[in-house]
């Protein structure tokens, strides 16, 4: 199983603090950073048609603002796997190779049908 993955994205106007309501400025929002980090980490979990993964914990430091149009690279590294539990270290950097965010994130592999049945 692969233990590191990197994804790249360009900050759009729909991902700003202003657009998402988490602030007043047109800069890459913390909620968008968290979503990008979680999405990157979940790519490392082997799923089937019957399974998925859910995030249960994330501790994030959003260290630097990024403008619309900035390219962000996010790398997730699997640091622990115990059964259905997966723990990741995640780092996000900008086009100037400066760290904009760091996180530790926990996800669990779940059976979709069983998980959804608990919502009723």
């Amino acid at each position: 199983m692969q233990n590191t993955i990197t994804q790249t994205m360009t900050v759009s106007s729909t991902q700003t603090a202003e657009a998402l309501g988490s602030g007043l400025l047109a800069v890459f929002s913390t909620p968008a950073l968290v979503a990008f980090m979680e999405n990157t980490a979940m790519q490392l979990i082997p799923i089937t048609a019957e399974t998925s993964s859910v995030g249960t914990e994330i501790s994030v430091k959003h260290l630097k603002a990024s403008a619309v149009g900035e390219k962000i690279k996010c790398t997730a590294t699997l640091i622990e796997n115990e059964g259905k539990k997966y723990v990741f270290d995640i780092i996000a950097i900008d086009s100037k190779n400066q760290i904009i965010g760091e996180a530790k994130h926990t996800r669990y592999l779940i059976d979709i049908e069983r998980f959804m049945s608990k919502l009723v």
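The mean pLDDT is 97. The CA atoms of residues 50 and 113 lie 7 Å apart.
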